[in-house]
Amino acid sequence: MEQSRISDDLNSRGYADLGPLLADSDSDALTALYPQKDSFRSHIIMQRHGFGEGEYKYFANPLPKPVVSLRAKLYASLAPIANEWQDCLGLEMRFPKTHKEMLARCHAGGQTRPTPLMLKYGEGDYNCLHQDLYGEHVFPIQVVILLSDVSDFDGGEFVITEQRPRMQSRVEVIQLRKGHGVAFAVNERPKLGKRGYYRVKMRHGVSQLRSGNRLTLGIIFHDAA
Predict the structure, then answer these.
(1) So what's the pLDDT on residue 162?
(2) CB of 158 within 8 A of CB of 206?
(3) More exposed terminus of the chain, fewer Cβ within 10 Å: N or C?
(4) pLDDT (tens digit per residue) in 12-51
(5) At what angle do helices 24-33 and 65-88 cross, to 10 degrees?
(6) How far apart are alpha carbons 183 and 142 in whole angstroms?
């Protein structure tokens, strides 16, 4: 990954295209896991909770090897950026260098449930704007990877909003390709203004699918309480 370009994009836009992260065969292997109950700890039907339309499943431990590998590798690249954000916002807490250490911090704080998940959308489904926080210990950047081929569906764009103080919200619509990922801010990120850095609130979601089926992998680096 181009570290400097990713850092610049996250700082200026709140998200960064990470390019290809999974080969087609790995994407297909993860997709094949979705019907298997033993691979997941929780199955959420969005409509029941007012989250949108569609469904998602949180992986159970032990996580699939590609997910463990992605979590560790991506975290190592994103942790320096997360710590830069802490500096910009005047926050003393720093994130550890390795994902293993980050998980140890979460588990010591009672956040022990794994958070990587797969999200499934069919025709008419969508995901309301939201944030994936899950507890006190929150790593400020997360990643989504498209597992489906773009020819398998129409619509279902990934959407990010940026709520700026005393201003109207800004919206980004992002098109993904199979196996490609995007990193984006979980909650707040610093933005440079005329008087220094200030906080902007970020949310993300998925627009309504017009046809077909869409499956994605969500990589969240903190575990849940």
Answers:
(1) 94
(2) yes
(3) C
(4) 999 999 999 999 999 999 999 999 999 999 999 999 999 9
(5) 100
(6) 6
